[in-house]
Amino acid sequence: MRDPSPGWLSLLVVLSAACADRDRVRPSAEPSPAVARPAAHAASPLPAERAPADPTAAATPAPVVPPSTGELTVVAGTFTHGVESRRPLDDVRTFRVGERATYHLVVRNLGAPRDVTVEWTRDGVSLGRTTLEVGTSPAWRTWATRRVQSRDRASGVEVRVLDPEGRVLHADRAAVADGAALPST
User: Fold this and answer.
1) Any long-range contacts for 77-86 (C-beta under 8 Å, 24+ apart)?
2) Superfamily (CATH H level) for 69-176
3) What does the domain layout of the chain look like in residue ranges?
4) Is the per-residue pLDDT at 54 higher than 60?
5) pLDDT in the model for residue 17
6) DSSP code, position 7
7) Which residues pair with 101 in a beta bridge?
């Protein structure tokens, strides 16, 4: 076996000296303006903000949202006849008696997983509730269903989406046509 050349030996000495010095080097309390630091929310599912183009520009710190108290909002709500591959089949504004009304939601939840409640109402009176778990996501898809009844003709199909504390996040309504009732299945 051949001995390493003097050039390789010098490189090994320099590298080992550099590794030995790393324990003695302490980072400065002030970050270098030339080094981009990750934003405080870099672990969130949304992209982190980029460092300013001008390294001397004053950067305002990004707000820190604790994982357990993140924002919970309804991004979209759609009445539909059904859901396939977590997407609404159609966008329905009028149902007939006997049809199954499905309310599809896209919920933005930047905090820990929590529940939302879909409440079906008629003239402001609760007819039923479905509690749905919403995971951490900028666009969590979920849905609830209810059979349209003849008593819904006057007020239509009404839905409210409530947060865990009972506050209304979203409300929507679809009409019920006076057409012939569909057979019950």
Assistant:
1) 77/103, 77/104, 77/105, 77/106, 77/159, 77/161, 77/170, 77/172, 78/103, 78/104, 79/103, 79/104, 79/157, 79/159, 79/172, 79/174, 80/104, 80/143, 83/143, 86/141
2) Macroglobulin (MG2) domain (2.60.40.1930)
3) 1-64, 69-176
4) no
5) 44
6) H
7) 146
* More confident site: 55 or 167: 167
pLDDT-derived band at 40 (thresholds 50, 70, 90) equals very low
Of 155, 158, 151, nearest to 181 by C-alpha is: 151
Residue 155: HSE in the Cβ half-sphere, 13 Å Cα cutoff: 16
Q: Round to whole Å and give the CA distance between 23 and 87.
A: 54
Residue 155, classed as helix, strand or coil, is coil
Other beta carbons within 10 angstroms of residue 148's beta carbon come to 21
| Whole-number pLDDT of residue 178 | 77
